[in-house]
Amino acid sequence: MIKLLVRRSTSWLILIVVATNVTYLLANLFLDPRSNYRETRPIPSEKQIDDSLAAYGLDPRVPLIERWWSWLRDIVLHFDWGRSPNGGSVNAEMAYRTLVSAQLVLIATVLCVIVGVGLGVVSAIHQYGVIDRVLQAVSILLYNVPTVVMALLLVFGAIRINESVGHTLFLVAGSQSPQVSGLLPTIVDRLAHLLLPTVSLTLLGYVGYHLTQRSLLLDTINADFVRTARATGLPYGKAIRRHALRAALIPTATSVAFSIPGVFTGAIITESIFGWHGMGEYFSLTLAKNDVNGVVAVAAFGALMTAIGAILADIATAFLDPRVRLA
Amino acid sequence: MSVTTASILRIESVHAEPERLGRTRLYVRRFMRNRAAFAGLLIFALFVLISLFGGFLSPYNYATPDFLALTQPPSAAHLFGTTSGGNDVLAQVIHGMQRSLTIAICVSLATVILSAVIGAGAAYLRGTVEKVSLGLIHFLLVVPSFLILALIANSVAGDWRVLIVVLSAFGWVGAARVIWSVSTTLREREYVVMAELMGVGRWRIIVRHLIPNLASLLIVNATLGVVGTVLTETSLSFLGFGIKVPDVSLGVLLQEGSSSLTTAPWIFFFPAAVLVLLTVSVTLIGDGLRDAFDPTSAARGRR
Amino acid sequence: MSLLQVRDLSVTFPSEHGPVHAVRGVDLELEAGRTLSLVGESGSGKSTVAGAIIGLLPPSAIISGQVLLDGQELTGRTDQELSRVRGRRIGMVFQDPLSALTPMFSVGRQVCDAIRVHQNLTAKQAWNKAVDLLELVGIRDPARRAKSFPHEFSGGMRQRVVIAIAIANNPDLLIADEPTTALDVTVQAQVLEVLHTAQQETGAGLLLITHDLGVVAGHADDVNVMYAGAVVEHAKVNELFARPLMPYTIGLLGAVPTATAGQRTPLIAIPGDPPQLHQEPSGCPFIDRCPAAIEACAQAEPALRSETSGHLVACIRSGEIAHDGLDIAALYARGNEAVEQRSIQHGELVLSTRRLVKSYPITKGTLLRRQVGTNVAVRGVDFDLFAGETHSLVGESGSGKTSTIMEILHLNPPEKGQIEVLGTPITGALDAHTRRRLRAGIQLVTQDATASLNPRLTVYDVLAEPLQAAHRSRAQIRGRIYELLDLVGLAHDVADRFPTAFSGGQRQRIGIARALALEPKVVVLDEPVSALDMSVQADILNLLVRLQSQLSVAYFLVAHDLSVVRYLSDRVSVMYLGTIVESAPAEDLFDYGLHPYTKALLSASPVPDPVVERTRQRIVLHGETGSEDDDGGCVFRPQCPLYSALPDEMRARCHQPQVMRARNGVPGHRVACHAVAVD
């Protein structure tokens, strides 16, 4: 098992390295850091621009291959992912934003899985019943609501409620308030900020788990081994929980693991709308600001998360399914 | 070889079973019996008609501002109201829907074709072709494709035709993997093995035996692809990386609406409602098709 | 009071084409300690009866009538109430052992769970009891094996576990639904024995559901024959087989090839197919297929009534059959007129292999496949097939018979050894012309015609495929297709239909027509009738016999059903674990088989005759195929009853490489056993 994981990790590492370098090339082709400076007043000369970019390894006069080499060397030797066109450290941004995103997105993911799997089981047991139909209708509707619309609807509703109540009941922007001290107030403040974006992510995210868990369970509910279990005297509901659900959870564990990359980069729109300075927002900022090194760092991070997700999925499957474990 | 003996043999004819239905008719009947799917089909057809011939619904051009009516709520003159720039929201929604639908349908068709050819080809031709295709698929799954999409789309200054190309170039990957794995079981089917043993050529087997048996999967993929593309395009345009003003798509409209959410909510609500109705209708169609093709759904017959 | 009483049981299922009346007014009665058999073809409703008794039919089923267990009503109870009966009072054994166990739990835990549902035992006590049960059903080293997962067990072993679960709480009633259908014959014999032991141990009544008349003959006390959802005949087992009264039962018994009836004599083929049960039949449901049907049969569905003492039958002419000498068997069309007995004249050699070897890499791990060893499926097979004859390869799953035929059919140079097809050795890449000639010369008919016909092609397109691949012209193809339809007895108007519009037997005819399209010299028949119902089997066997005498094609038959093999074959080779252990002319092998495996196989194969079944000595093999190291000696050793009885100095010979020895005085009878006497 350990040997297997090492081999898997190695092949993923190679894919990550290739993907990161391809992104570096594409980012240099499609982004133009000089355009940032043209908006400053007074407009600097081309030479001034290039000179200031040169300090960050972004000087377009230097051949791409040389820039690439020094970029790569800094990463390998110092784990330094470079600078943005205005001199900010990519490493510092990444470190800070990873944490911000993590609080938002991990909670939402856990909620999505719990809600989705739970409703999936309820739906499957009452297949074609009233509960199932209602749950499915809601899920199909939510599945089709774009993140933008959901987040904006929540903001709209929250503002209206705040207005009618007369004070700020829901916080619609940012991840924390500036002047809060003490442990308890800090926690309360954080949770209040988390509420709306978490609701938004959960409402949109649970749907996938609900619908897939329902169909996975339906596939196993009629399996012969469930019939065997019922023939031993287990009532229908127990037979499903003990036998069918266990089998149907294996693919779900895999998909939870695979959702981890989305966890960190997938909240782009939600973070933008709710004003969270996380990875998702960084993603759109770096693109808009022609931040070549930032974009590449985000891409590398995403690829790394995909790899971690895939490896976790392997481990989860092996843990849950004896047919794989013993193979 | 003589066939004269045949005349003295018992010639058996096909036994008639009650209501034996043709395959296609069976699918159509199952689909039509599904009320939700049928409603989806009607809504979708209506939207397609409006985006094709809907210009007469609003006397205004989507890009020509009416400077006498800035940020007006819905009224008789402007059914959906106007934007802060004085554009008629109804005209913009119709145009945006047309733009979004065109992109979605083109991308969905392109990705279905790409994914079928690559997925089925890789599975059946095996060997190097399969290895290379799978390598490419895996690689594209690792690359954060949304980021690269945004990167490229952003730099082509909002040309919707380029956007179609870019979205198609990245959209086929997931579907191709599914089709590949389904095809790996299809290629072991006995009738495929029999065809090989009879000396039937490889491409002929792909065209005659593999693709027709993938048809239901491909049709469902195509409808779900429309939804997926609409959502991706909306996100890209909302973030400012896709379609750009002065051209208008539903995503662009949402971006516009979000900035005046509390002061002029109609700018947000109308495109949002159309968007959700559109994707819901297509999803219902897709679900209906999947149920209709599903052999196990027969259990839900009438009593 | 009887243990189980079923009164007027009816079950209806909704379907796309309207309601299906799967079971219609069935009455059953079973005493404790006895075995009642429910026998019928697929779709006769026999499994539905079992599902209704134990209450495991899908919720859409509409059930009426009564099920009484010790006089206690079971129908209409809630799932909660029934679950106190299931497992404790009724145990059930299912058809497919491969899917009947939960893959995520160890077999011990599953037996344990079954015990603890009804008995208040500690985990430790229950585990010990589970180990005891596993030992009872014949699992060796049960304490260790209990911790294994189902996928580590073979089909036969898993079925033993299912039986252990079924008897975990000493039920009063055991229901076995086709318990051995998915298993090999020698394993079937083992499992039936275990089931018998289990019944003895618990004193339970056994409801045995099967389509196999041989199993019925060997194990049932009373028999109910089901047709179209109703019981059409009921009698004690000896009575039923000796004096069947229902024309359907008479037809079924005549459809099975038997040793006494001789080879290639036409079998009774019941015409047509069972009715679709969308409406309740207005007359006798068998009327369309019955050779003795008269007008009165269409008036009303005949009730089941007593004809002679203890013998119930649902036929209005049963009186004539029982007392007035109405000979139903003679009335049945025997398919076609008798085919002249051929003597085997050795024509040209059309197919031969020498020391053929085929191995597969064993890969492990679903995550990252890696090769951990090789599985040698075929270990040096010599096989000859002469023009116009039938040479059969007999063996159980894993014996390598399918690998052998696929290795030949692919027309690629073998891994080791030689293959010669139509006088052409297969060495290196063949040129396109030779390849096409050989392809045309050797064709395949598979077991499952449904799987081998692409559902999206019409019969015309299916039959055209080999002709197109051989570059025939459009006009030639058209003419040939209608010739082929005539040849296999299908009407021309079927050409534009899709395979789903046909019954199983008709589909197999299409498969045979396709194989004959290019006038091959050799047709490989891979289990050609094993997926078909008994009455349809006979029809296809008759067709195969007729086609062979008409076209002088050679058959390479692969089958596990020995009665079918005996019926069709000139020569038979018995295969075990990749080697041929015995090869002989058919009659000689069946009457004087020498190899201990051949003997075990012959004795395990059930015969539809209760007198024979209950008097003959049965050799039940122990253990499983290929469970010991391969030292180049006899591969059958671990299971061999002779080997285990041999003194040590004799055993040494069995570790020497196998050689084929000729049987004295019988040309062509050769056996690969060191221990057996060859005279």
UniProtKB/TrEMBL annotation, chain A:
TM region positions: 12-31, 104-125, 137-159, 191-209, 248-274, 294-320
Record has Transport as a keyword: yes
Sorted UniProt keywords: Cell membrane, Membrane, Transmembrane, Transmembrane helix, Transport
Gene Ontology CC entries for this record: plasma membrane
Domain of life: Bacteria
Entries under SUPFAM superfamilies matching the protein: MetI-like (SSF161098)
Keyword Phosphoprotein belongs to the record: no
Signal peptide: none
A Pfam family annotated for this UniProt entry: BPD_transp_1
InterPro entries (UniProt xref): MetI-like (IPR000515), MetI-like_sf (IPR035906)
Domain ABC transmembrane type-1: 98-317
Coiled-coil segments: none
Principal location listed in the UniProt entry: membrane
A biological-process GO annotation: transmembrane transport
Annotated membrane topology: Multi-pass membrane protein
Localization annotation: Cell membrane
UniProt family annotation: Belongs to the binding-protein-dependent transport system permease family.
The protein's name: Peptide/nickel transport system permease protein
TrEMBL record, chain B:
Transmembrane regions: 36-57, 101-125, 132-154, 160-180, 210-231, 266-285
Pfam families xref list: BPD_transp_1, OppC_N
PANTHER family tied to this protein: OLIGOPEPTIDE TRANSPORT SYSTEM PERMEASE PROTEIN APPC, OLIGOPEPTIDE TRANSPORT SYSTEM PERMEASE PROTEIN OPPC
Compartments where located: Cell inner membrane; Cell membrane
UniProt KW keywords: Cell inner membrane, Cell membrane, Membrane, Peptide transport, Protein transport, Transmembrane, Transmembrane helix, Transport
Protein name as catalogued: Oligopeptide transport system permease protein OppC
GO CC terms of this entry: plasma membrane
UniProtKB/TrEMBL annotation, chain C:
SUPFAM superfamilies listed in its UniProt record: P-loop containing nucleoside triphosphate hydrolases
Record carries keyword ATP-binding: yes
CDD domains: ABC_NikE_OppD_transporters
Pfam families in alphabetical order: ABC_tran (PF00005), oligo_HPY (PF08352)
Annotated ranges, domain ABC transporter: 4-253, 357-602
Coiled coil stretches, renumbered: none
Name this protein carries in UniProt: Peptide/nickel transport system ATP-binding protein
